[in-house]
Design a protein that fits this description.
- By secondary structure, the chain is an alpha/beta fold.
- It has 3 domains: about 200 residues, Rossmann fold (3-Layer(aba) Sandwich); about 40 residues; about 30 residues.
- The chain is about 45% helix and about 10% strand.
- The chain contains 11 helices and 7 strands.
- A 7-stranded parallel sheet has the order 3-4-2-5-6-1-7, sandwiched between helices.
- Strand 5, helix 6 and strand 6 form a beta-alpha-beta unit.
- Helix 2 packs across helix 3, helix 8 crosses helix 9 and helix 10 packs antiparallel against helix 11.
- It is globular.
- Pfam families: SNF2-rel_dom.
- InterPro entries: Helicase_ATP-bd, P-loop_NTPase, SNF2-like_sf, SNF2_N, SNF2_RAD54_helicase_repair.
- This is Protein CHROMATIN REMODELING 25 (AtCHR25) (DNA repair and recombination protein RAD54) (AtRAD54).
Length: about 300
């Protein structure tokens, strides 16, 4: 793999790209990855685009296969800008779904019918509605803000979970590891083979969470502690196969020190009048206070 010089970042990002690249080469049923960071701005989008370009430029997808980035509707335009920023105008032209119903259908047909259209950017809601139009051509699914799929019971989670595509990447800035059930559902989305009922060491998510919680109690019995430790080890072994987690400590050395500036401002005359009215009417009850606030807001 020869990554574009435009998308080669810090060494820890390059190593992360190597991890997702290896994951994507393992096969159609073993390429899921969960990238979970504790904060924004740690390079999830850049790593996803680097992987996307590496996969497309090296023809790792099947002949008619394309990639889909699904995200909240408010972020579709952001992904268009990110693609342009890191890959330019000529390398990859995404089909971005942002407008009305009739245009959406024509855009999806264009994405399906033209070989040059290898990337679709679409919202979760629109993909859920039109999944039957793109299910057979999607060979790489990238889910931004993927913690939306942490509940198995939602219509979106069910629909996306039933897609044929098995190369799935879930990006999230929410620390899913704080809730074992949420981590279980997201893990099952990207790697259903590891969390299927017939998989070795399978335990229902509620039962696994309860076993770990009981083991941490001060009055836990030796049997409960042993079971909790066993469940924890099995979960660690599974998550190590697909979980890539980054924290702020990875990039703090590249950031300038934070500077906090406190500015003290004088109240405007109308604000002074409002506060004074409140002080004068405190003994008159809440109705007078509400009236004083209303007058102050109107004056402002």
């Amino acid at each position: 793999m020869t990554p574009s010089p435009r998308i080669v970042g810090a060494s820890w990002q390059t190593r992360a790209l190597g991890t997702v690249w290896s994951s994507c080469q393992k096969g159609a049923h073993a390429a899921g990855l969960l990238s979970c960071d504790s904060r924004m701005g740690l390079g999830k989008s850049l790593q996803a685009l680097a992987l996307l370009w590496a996969v497309l430029s090296n023809n790792l997808l099947r002949k008619a296969g394309s990639a889909i980035i699904v995200c909240p509707s408010s972020l579709c335009g952001n992904w268009r800008a990110e693609v342009k920023k890191w890959l330019g105008d000529k390398r990859l032209k995404p089909t971005v779904i942002e407008s009305g119903k009739e245009k959406i259908l024509s855009q999806i047909r264009e994405f399906r019918d033209f070989a040059s259209r290898r990337l679709l950017v679409i919202s979760y809601d629109q993909l859920r509605r039109h999944v039957q139009l793109v299910d057979d051509v999607c060979d790489l699914l990238i889910c931004d803000e993927g913690h939306r799929l942490r509940s198995q019971g939602t219509a979106t989670s069910k629909t996306l979970g039933q897609m044929r595509c098995r190369r799935r990447i879930l990006l999230s800035g929410t620390p899913l590891q704080n809730d074992l059930e949420e981590l279980f559902h997201c893990g099952r989305f990207v790697r259903p083979d590891l969390f299927a009922p017939q998989s070795p060491g399978y335990m229902a998510p509620k039962a696994a969470a309860w076993a770990v919680q009981c083991a941490r109690e001060p009055l836990a019995t030796p049997e409960e502690k042993a079971l909790g430790q066993q469940v924890t080890r099995e979960l660690e072994q599974k998550t190590l196969q697909f979980l890539l987690r980054r924290t702020m400590e990875m990039v703090n050395f590249n950031l300038p020190p934070r500077v906090e500036i406190v500015l003290r401002l004088r109240l405007a005359p109308v604000q002074v009048a409002a506060y004074q009215a409140l002080l004068n009417d405190l003994h008159c009850g809440p109705h007078s206070m509400a009236k004083a606030l209303k007058c102050g807001c109107q004056g402002w």
